[in-house]
Fold this protein.
Amino acid sequence: MERSTFVYDGDCAFCTRCAEFIERHIPTSSRVMPWQFADLTALGLTEAECDQAVQWVGADGVRAAGPDAIARLLGDSSLLWRVAGAALRFPPVRAAAWPAYRWVARNRDRMPGGTAACAVPAAQRD
C-alpha cells in the first residue's frame, strides 16, 4: 500500500462533516474516504468493522479503529496535530477516549450535522 487510509461512514452526515473538517484543517498525506467507496478487501477491512468505527490502515499495514485510528491520522499531520495524536495515545486519555467515542457513535444522529440516517440501529447499541 502506497498511502495510509482513514475510512469513515459516508452515509452518516455527522461523520462526513468530521471528514470534511479533516480535509480542510488537518494536513495529512493519508487518504480520507467513506468506506462505501473504499476497496475494503484491499484494505483488509470488513463492512462490519467500518460500520462500528472509523478505521485506519497505515501504509505499513498497521490497522487501528475508533480513537486509535484518529490518533494515527493526527500522527500523520503537522506538529500541532501530531501532539494531539500523541495525547490521544497517552494511556489515561486513551482509556477515556474509547467510552466517549462509543457514546458519540451511538448518538451521532443527535450530533451537530447529524441526521436520522446517522442513527445506529437499536440492536447495535450498547
In short: The two ends are 34 Å apart (CA to CA). The chain has a mean pLDDT of 89.
